[in-house]
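Hey,

The postdoc asked me to send both predictions to you directly instead of through the lab channel. I've kept everything plain text so nothing gets mangled by the mail client. Protein one:
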Amino acid sequence: MVLVIGFPIAVIITWAFELTPEGLKPTETSERADSIRPMAAGDYALIALLVLVLGIASFQVLNKGAAPAPLAANAEPATRTQPTPSAASIAVLPFADLSPDGDQEYFSDGIAEEILNVLVRVDDLDVTSRTSAFQFKGREIGLPQIAAELNVRFILEGSVRRAGDTVRITAQLIDAVGDRHLWSQTYDRPLSAQNLFAIQDEISNAIVSQIGAVLGIAPATAISVPVTTNDLDAYDLFLQARPMFQARGQLDEVDLLLERATTLDPDYADAWAMRAVLQTLLVSYGYSERTRAEIGALADEYAARALAMDPRNSLALTALAEMEFATAWEAHEPVDWQGVLDMYTEALAADPRNATALLWRGLVRSEMGYLQESLADFESCLALEPLYAPCLLDKASVLSGLGRDDEAMAVLLRNLDEGIGRITYFDLAVLARRGERALFEAITNDADMLQGWRHHGDLYDAYRHPESDHTALVLDILSFVGADSSELGIGSGVRTAARIPDLIAGLRGSSIQPNFSGFWLEPRSGYLQNELFEGIARDTGLLEYWQTHGFPPRCRAEGVDGFSCD
């Protein structure tokens, strides 16, 4: 702008004045002979440079506001249009821990989550998921920005100070429109389970009332928070266990915490239900060497304890459905497929926000070959909990099975962007088909894979060419990890080689049964044509289910009682 404004001034001065050894003189009074030397090549270069700079500046000014160049097909736009939040939308942020020793973070987070769980049951109130709201924990971001990123109008924040036999809980409600403080309250009470539930009750009712007043609508029926336990220590142990259970980490510690909680309060339905679901996770994540039959018996016992006190406990119903399916499936015994699906549906009727039920029903449907229906469950799970790692990872796997590799890769990369899950759970088949050799071999060199093995390039080639026989490669991997096929089957509990069954199950020459939906995912398509798969489909009643309810897209009836799959 300085160049543009100064240019006409410079033109006037150079027209009216002459530069001489004595300085500037009016052009009319100076003799040509008195003027500075004739212009040299350098002067012309300087003028050309000034003209170029002036041209660039002028171009930018004249093109200010012009449309940007089109984005590449796979590029992300720099900014996105932010949708308008629904009027009655709220996010509950994790409460700050103000306890003297700063060691009660699990407790303050737990109180915030308990309030969130109450609010989600309020009709017409749109509550952001825990995983979305809790991602801002410890980040120095203003509330208006958080509200904009979460696309909500209202924010609830607070703090918890627990000291000795007392507790102080402070909560405040913010309207992001104008960053207005609507309501706040401090609760000083003797520390007891009953008082904690009463405070949750009061906060939840106050929030609903305040939002109703802002929007000019009558508040709903008063909220009543159920008292799930009268034992403060049992409640404290449950709050410690829950975040680790949700993150699928330190599950052995979770088991100990829940065992202590149910010992202190044998009538604690929520703790029994979580213990029931936990049993299958202990084996799946390599924390237990119990057989499926052993953990199935425990899960059934714990779920029955929960349902005896709370017949509609969604998590307990989820555990029963999972064990009904997994125990029979892995033993190649008849599965009541329709009954399992119905149990998951019942669990979701009791709690439509049960992400675990959606996840596991999606996995069962993928085992059955109905990948589109499975994908729908994972997407419903992510609509409730957008950052729920298991649903994101399994969505990527099903997209891979549907041949939608670009979408699968986008989901996996999003996981890295968001810091969700582990890279070892990337779908290796997608990486191989896309030629991502460096990333493929970086994963297979992980400690839970084949760190120290010498033939990662051969494994990459095997994934690139699944149609070939890879018996020798499979035997070499089994020899390296020091196990045979029976020791690496599902539920083997081999912690030191946790990912090996998934890694080699789909290679031709392997007799290991793949984990979840492995039959249907590349490069495992060859598995669908071998005799082992045909026997499993018959023994588990899957073929009978297909014959009654319809075959999945990749399979069809053959003759009187046969079938074939692509």
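Protein two:
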Amino acid sequence: MAERANATGRAIELALALICPLAAGATDLAPPAASTGAAAKPAAVVPDENFFRHPSVLRAELSPTGRHVAITAVRDDSRASLLVVDLQQTAEPARVLASYKKLDVVDFHWVNDERLLYSLGQLEPGKIRGHAPGLFSVDVGGKQHVELICSEVKSCRQQPGTLDLSHHLLFVPVPQAGVKPNEVVLGQARGGQYHVAPMWLDTRSGIVRRMDMPAAPDGAAAWWFDPRGEPRLAMSVDEGRASYHWLAPGATSWRRIAEFDVLQEPFRPVAVAGDGRLYVTHQRGEAREAVLTTFDFDTLAPATRPIVQVPGFDFEGMLVPGEPGAGIVGLHLDADAGVSVWFDEAMKRFQEAVDKRLPGRVNLIQCRRCGQADMVALVQSYADRDPGRLLLYRAATQRWENVAVVLDGIDPRKMAGVDFQRIKARDGRDLPVWLTLPQGVPAGQAAPAVVLVHGGPWMRGGSWRWAPMEQFLASRGYLVIAPDFRGSTGYGEAHWRAGFKQWGQAMQDDVADALLWARKQGLASDRACIAGASYGGYATLMGLVRHPDLYRCGVAWVAVADPFLFLEGSSWVLDDIGRWGRRHMLPEMVGDVDKDAAMLTAVSPVAQAERIRAPLLLAYGEDDLRVPLTHGTRLREALIKAGHPPEWIVYPNEGHGWQHLSTRVDFAQRVEAFLQRHLRDPAQ
């Protein structure tokens, strides 16, 4: 078992310093400062490390009845610990349930009001090796620890009664009548298949029992459960085809309700509610935007009437369940900013009251007995200039109590505002662009710009919230332009598919068009640098190839540099990209190494290295398995051969992204100095 620290001394100090006593008679808090668009003259420069340290609070969740709140918390960039506060024992401080010397509690789940599950990881990986997340249970008193799934690879077989690493937590049922109070749903990978069949796990004893259900569909790879933990939907995969199978209550066999190519999903499951409804998203309209609806089992298709539709955006969010056996009471989604939609009238009124109390912010409500006279609510309140804070409200006393600030050392008054625009790309495509606007720039004066390209690339990059790299760059006086270029998700399937086989081509033009638009608006000066990580690093390199007149410099880290290596892999280079994805998805989304060889060569930074002439800062992680260091060394060798060597840094004990605070700060300082030389120096 992983070595657990004594829950005294330093750990108790952590708990006491982080969480205020939640006294029933606590006075009302003054609302946090609202985000405004007014530009204030910045005071002293915020230290680099303030932007990149770990949040003080990773996650907080109320127990099923709302009696307790559990928090994963970090103090002084030490390890993340699991804490719990008993809201009925207001005189007692937070209790440390799990704290480790070399590992972090990275995730947790309430099983019931008396027991939690948690898993381990490393926010800052040290030289320790051979640990897996594992699965542990602990009672709220912090005394009954049980290792359910082995976490230490080398000793996994030496721990009798502990499940091996092939097991994974699948679902935690909602406590209710008829559900065994300490059982959760487990899956197991076996014979090349993932989650072959779910099973029940007793979190107190570690005993596993068979789940009473019909034989699972062949090739089952994903599962959806109702709140009781009963399997209702399974997805099976066979080569490049997939199917959804439904198991109705009381049914003796699975019913296939959809079959499709893996890149042609007719709908996407979201959740099975307590009333038995299957909630799904599916695409509608010219932009093929995802809307939320229920599934119609008579027509075997999503219902025609959407529950939520946000023009210009896909539905991306989470459902708020009602009481056991009931449907949902609301949902949270992310459009141009986070927003909550409530179907319960009492919760609508409460949301209005919270938003009035905390104006100009996104206020996400987590509640137990939602809308009732004895409701307990935990509110996460954040803004573009503020990483956020947590507040507790108990309807019985109608008082607000402070829980924690998410990230210490950030003064919202010194942070930059975030703006969202939709512009037109050169071919007329709608192009979402996020801007982080530096303070202290006189009205009407253009600022030097950093075009920051997100990774993925099949993800949504921007959102109206505080982001460390964007805020760091803006604090140094740079306008940050972050386009959600074609190929990004979140804006309709058409926008995503428009990026297929467009690496270094139309996707790259979108990035350039965002900068050209900002210049035309008078926001960006003629001094700009392009930057990004992973795919964003690739786009940085191709930006210097394709549009050398736009960018004075580039900053690329953990960047894909050789598309052929990315697409086909190498027996000499270890990576974590699966053969299934390389066979069934990447050829269509990026390119086929044989059929599209000429195109891939034209958009390969390694092959086109002689065209990269602008100053380039290039950084990689020595242990990166997603984009192995070989990408960087091949590019560096090609640039040296072309007579344009890059500034080069390899960080030991780092993977695909910087996990050490020391690395993040060192890299930020290098970026700051690099941009100063190439965007600020009058000689440039």
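Summary for protein two, as requested: The longest helix spans residues 661-680.

Thanks,
C.
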